[in-house]
Amino acid sequence: MEKERSSTSWVSGLIVCGALVLGLMIGKGVEKTGYASESYEELKIFAEVLTQVKKHYVEEVQTNDLVHGAVRGMLKTLDPHSAYMTPEMYKEMKVETKGEFEGLGIQIGIKDHHITVIAPIEGTPAHAAGIESGDVILKVDETPTKDLTLMEAVQRMRGPKGTAVTLTVEREGASDTLSFTLIRDTIKIRSVRSRTLDDRIGYVRISQFQESTPKDLGRELVKLQDEGTQGLILDLRNNPGGLLSSAVGVSEQFLQPDTLVVSVKGRDGRKDEYRASPPMDPLEYPMIVLVNQGSASASEIVAAAMQDWGKAVILGKTTFGKGSVQTILPLSDGSGLRLTTAKYYTPSGESIHSVGVKPDIVVEPKPIILDEKQQDKEQKEATSPEKDNRSSSDNEQGNAPDTQKDLEAELMKKDMQLQKAIELIKTWKVFKGLHPLESA
How far apart are CA 326 and CA 177, in angstroms? Predict the structure, then answer.
């Protein structure tokens, strides 16, 4: 009886709180007259169901579990990207934006009502196992994903380092489903990497948009400029996005001050504009941005800004098409809401939601696979005692071999989209160097 009285008291409090909130909303002119009583009745039904479940369900259930379940169900009816985060999930989310977490290294989204891989993160278990952009995840271990929310699917794939999880996926072009057993690891994301390619072409790869990404990019661009870079390839392929502020911070390094990067519009119709405010003049040289179906969200903001303002040629395949903004709202018990609060629009005023950014030049990728002899050679060189001895000797001379860099160079040679980008920049430079005779 004491439990029933406690439950009834809690439910009554819920109804009163709901009525007070609605009253405040009406006082601000947000809702129409009469809406309060209508919603009060709906909350009353919810309270009745909660009471009956607590009283008559075959097994004893906790009020907290029922409320959290109701909240998850409520958010699930909104859109695939709105979700409830438990205190543990909320804490993990904050850690992830710093660039380190434990899991598989896979970014997922909802596409055509299915949980779909946006992109595996480079150097992670998912990437090593061969998970690809566009793979539809059917099961996590033995649990079908059909009725899981996005956050629930993420939670099932996350876990302590060293533990195993099996993903069953459906892949376009495959005659049957594929099964991958992966061992979770600590995922450390280095969001920006760069190198100088032949003919002084700078190459920058951004794998995810984190808090430090704009600053890291600025440092890499200065390094490339010091090396005499005369053209830039910005690789956003398989970059699933990240922070909106980071996307703006990256874009403004290539745009003039006060140039519109992206605008955001919520339900009230108000449009917030994000404009470039770089501390120095942007770098001026030929630029190619590489994108594919794994480029989403913040990646699409950068690509669209470069395209709309004519700062770069976009090359590759049409992007994922995630044009909504999620706001993280903390709750009193340490949990949080991931709530879609707006849609973003490109500088030209277009929404790319479910459409994506279409490249200026379409280049189909060619599978990048090292032949078995090359793989065996790299593996032997990486693990042989002779390699260790050579490394010690070479380190003293300051020219230690780098197997990972050699492997990356080999992969780059087989990357058709990258090779096309290099060709374009070289051609660009040739045309720029033409000097017609002046009229006499």
Answer: 32
- What whole-number distance in Å separates Cα of residue 186 and Cα of residue 378? 24
* 326: CATH: 3.90.226.10
Confidence bin at 91 (pLDDT 50/70/90): confident
Nearest to 151 by CA among 240, 86, 64: 86
Helix, strand or coil, per DSSP, at residue 171 = coil
Is the same domain home to 182 and 282? no
What span, in angstroms and rounded, lies between the C-alpha atoms of 143 and 392? 49
* Helix 63-76 and helix 35-56, axial crossing angle in degrees, nearest 10: 130
Residue 227 counted as domain residue: yes
* Distance in angstroms (rounded) separating the CA atoms of residues 335 and 77: 19
On whether the CB atoms of residues 339 and 326 are closer than 8 A, the answer is yes
Give the CA distances from residue 117 to residues 90, 268, 320, 398, in Å, rounded to whole numbers and listed in that order.
Answer: 21, 32, 10, 42
Verify that 350 and 218 share a domain, yes or no. yes
Query: Does pTM surpass 0.70?
Result: no
At residue 86, the pLDDT reads 85
Residue type, 363: V
Domain residue limits at 41: 2-61
| Amino acid at position 311, single letter | K
Number of domains in the chain: 3
Q: How confident is the model at residue 289 (pLDDT cuts 50, 70, 90)?
A: very high
In the predicted structure, residue 438 carries a pLDDT above the cut 70: no
pLDDT at 14 over 70: no
Please identify, among 316, 332, 362, the residue that sits at the C-terminal boundary of a domain: 362
* 121 in the same domain as 22: no
Are the C-beta atoms of residues 254 and 225 closer than 8 Å to each other? no
**What pLDDT score does 9 carry?**
38
Q: What is the pLDDT of residues 253-265, one digit of tens each?
A: 999 999 999 999 9
- Catalytic residue numbers? 297, 308, 322
**Measured between alpha carbons, how far is 61 from 53 in angstroms, rounded to an integer?**
8
398 within a domain of the structure (yes/no): no
